[in-house]
Amino acid sequence: DSLTFVLNSTDQPHAQDPGGISAAQVALDRQSARAANLIYDAGEALDQQRFGMVYQRDRAAGSLTVRNYYVWRDFSNFLPFESAGAVDLDRFFYGFGAQYTLADVLPEQVGLMLGFDIDRQNDTRQRFDNMQGHVGPLRLDQREKVNSDGVFVQSKYLFNQRWDMAAGLRYDNIKFNVADHYLIDGDDSGKVSFDQLSYSFGLNRKLERGVLFAAISSSFETPTTTELANPDGSGGFNQSLEPQTAINYELGYKTGTKQLYYEIAVFHIELKNELVPFELPGSPGRTFYINAGKSSRTGVETAVSWQGASGFGIDASLTWSDFKFDRFMDENGRDFSGSRLPGVPEYFAFLSFDYENSNGFTATFETLYSGSLFANNANSVKVPDYVVSSLRATYDIQTAKLLFQPYFGVNNLFNAHYNSNIRINAFGGRYYEPAPERNVYAGIVIRYQ
Q: How buried is residue 290: exposed, middle or buried, by Cβ count under 10 Å (0-12/13-18/19+)?
């Protein structure tokens, strides 16, 4: 039996937000901030504590895993506009779940796992006017609750030495409840609920070298409480926003030895009601969401990993993506059917070189390539591709009960010009959040065993 505890705390008293800037401003000064973000002192503060535990028990009849966690979060931020531009959010969320895998009670070729998840979230959300970096009059005051319950079953069956299958079912029920305490503009209290039965089915065929696999599954993603905000600025939840659902198809092949592993997979995803972000003229810097009628995602993923006996290793991957809106009319009645999904590059590649020795020293050099992408639904703004590299190293110092792990790293090693974030469909062409130039960091991790 084992019982693992996790306790962590984060205190981030002030993080500035330079906001998205235009292409002209990027060309003039990559380190500049949007003027409104300076005027309204845009940024955020976070104070969070988390406690969790995982219990595991293995017996001849089966194995049991139980999880339990609690998170307290105090979050506030200033957005770059006056009306309701200061946010104060107190959140408490917790969860409990368990899964049980049957063993001896079933035939040897059969596997079965049962489980459930129960998660709860309670928010106190207030919005005030942002008086150029000072909290002004109250504009929104509501209590938000989210109840999420899920049950699932997963099974495996071994037909013979070459064929096996896996299947699963999961039912989720999510309820959103908002109580409006700011009644000057009316009572916006209300409820929203979603539920979905999701499935998965996979088939594996062992070859003389490697495994051929195929899978089909469905998925279900609800909007968050923040994404449910009404674009008209009123309180409550956006009753017209629907969850995003998808059917996923995958076919692939993987093979490996002790030193070399290789995998290639082709996938196709059909989505309904994809959640698409947008900004409004009166609230630049604040994101709202709308559902796209139908979209599809087709791609190829490859990965290779090599580990040498001397401590050197290589990991590499390449992804090709063709993501597009099949049917989509936005909030202003513009038809974007056939457009590529913004924010997703057609090509993405990753390469890393690793070294580790028996004295506890490790070093990693990483390079990633991101192809060009579009910043808006109309595909009229194209963001160029880039290559960025990083280097990090750690050293383990072990005592009887403590492990000291100092680390050091360099981000953007070759000082590339690229964007750390693209604000999709940003108002006024302010799509770009330039990434920092070359920067270094260092720290130490201490573990008690």
A: buried
pLDDT digits (tens, 9 = 90+) for 299-333: 999 999 999 988 999 999 999 999 999 999 987 88
Q: Specify the residue for token string 């796209």.
A: 292
> Which residues, including other chains, have CB under 8 Å from residue 339's CB and lie 6 or more apart?
324, 325, 328, 374, 377, 378, 379
Taking 90 as the threshold, does the pLDDT of residue 223 lie above it?
yes
Task: Provide, rounded to the nearest whole percent, the portion of the chain with pLDDT above 90.
Answer: 85
Q: Which residues contact 302 (CB under 8 A, 6 or more apart)?
A: 262, 263, 264, 265, 317, 318, 319
* DSSP summary character for residue 82: S
Collect all residues with Cβ–Cβ distance below 8 Å to 177 and sequence separation of at least 6. 144, 145, 146, 147, 190, 191
Nearest C-alpha neighbor of 307 from the set 357, 355, 351, 350: 355
User: For residue 41, what pLDDT band results from cuts at 50, 70 and 90?
Assistant: very high
CB 108 within 8 A of CB 140: no
CB atoms inside a 10 Å sphere around CB 106: 14
Q: Give me the phi and psi of 331, to 5 degrees please.
A: -65, -20
Residue 398 CA to its chain's centroid (Å): 34
Cα separation of 415 and 137, whole Å?
A: 44
Q: Which of 265, 255, 312, 290 is nearest to 424 (CA)?
A: 290
Q: Give pLDDT tens digits for 227-277.
A: 999 988 888 999 999 999 999 999 999 999 889 999 999 999 999 999 999
Question: What is the pLDDT, as a whole number, of residue 400?
Answer: 86
Distance CA 90, CA 414 (A): 41
C-alpha dihedral sign at 26, 380, 339, 386: negative
Mention every residue, 6+ apart, whose C-beta is less than 8 A from residue 147: 119, 120, 173, 174, 175, 177
